[in-house]
Amino acid sequence: MTDLDASALALIDNCSQASLALLERNLTSHGILAAARTEAAVARRYTRIFGRDAAICVMAMCGSGVPALEQGAVASLEALAAQQAANGQIPKYVDPEGRDADFWYLGCIDATLWWLIAVDHVRRHGQVGPSRWTEEVARALGWLLAQEHQHFRLLQQNEASDWADIMPRSGYVLYTNALWYEVKRRFALDHAEATHYHFNHLFNPFQRDLPEYHRARLLQHYARRGRRDPGLYLSFVNLAVVGDEGDVFGNVLAMQCELADSAMARRIVDTIDRAHAGEPWPVRVVLHPLPRQHPLWRAYMGRHRQNIVHQYHNGGIWPFVGGFWVMALAKLGEHGMAWAELAKLARANALDDWRFTEWFHGRTLAPMGMAGQSWNAATFLLARRALLNGEGAW
């Protein structure tokens, strides 16, 4: 139960209703759009069915009890499957009318991962059979397995090729491999234990336990050299460079996907909490933004001045990630803290007459990005569901 006052509980209820209404408004006959149809959203192609956005929304729409949303969950997965590449990759986004499929500059690895997670979710909680999308699932898994290192059992990727598409993470990426382990568990893939083992040794190289594989020991040494234990998993590990900027989303997913044991999960929560990443609204997605003089800085991060410090993926506040933060707290049993964060998340979504703002500046708190963001609504609903009974939240 929660100790929130009546006004906070009422705000949470109002946000739940507003979230369902937004998802219905953003729904087309072919699936859920990433954002409300505004002039800016059309110009930036947010009025598309995005692999990752739609999959996250599918999990909220499925089990909502709203017939249009239940049907929209299946339609969204169908629209993405219809434009699946011959090699098995799910597109970054598709046009609602089926005329366009985009696969991003260097590929979009997480669209396929999220699509698979959503397929499993709908099979378990929706009104489709367990064999729905069998061929498409097999092709998608085959595409991912082709990118798995044959000893580490972790996925490898180019930089800027997942949700944080203006960040220089590459090689073995925390966020991506948390999702990969989740896919392995849901679809009973081989070598899940090896994925779990190397995930924890590669992204947390500060532990005393050394892996047996000599290349794993060397990567662990390179990652640890000259650094202090940040209390978090590293955001990525490559041959000569690692990410210690404090990737909140990747760490939260490591908790949600049960890769972090209880001790590591507590450390993650304490580190994020001490950094005040949830103030005034959850949650800043990077604890230590990369300035222009940082060795990891890339010229593309400064394009349109979008990803400079405290902005966008480089330290902005993303309410949809705040929903995953609440879910991870609930999984850890921190229900009091989780309810308080959910109330703050409702306040963020309610700003500017329920704008459901994509992201906020990490310092000035200026609203940025698109209005009417579907996955803000979806993860709020999932977080509330996780706190109420847990059924169908993940």
From TrEMBL:
Any one GO molecular-function label of the UniProt entry: beta-fructofuranosidase activity
Family in the record: Belongs to the glycosyl hydrolase 100 family.
Pfam families: Glyco_hydro_100 (PF12899)
Protein name, as recorded: beta-fructofuranosidase
UniProt cross-references to Gene3D superfamilies, sorted A to Z: 1.50.10.10
Biological process terms in GO annotation: carbohydrate metabolic process
Keywords: Carbohydrate metabolism, Glycosidase, Hydrolase
Enzyme class at the top of the EC tree: hydrolase
This enzyme's EC code(s): 3.2.1.26
Reactions catalysed, as given in the entry: Hydrolysis of terminal non-reducing beta-D-fructofuranoside residues in beta-D-fructofuranosides
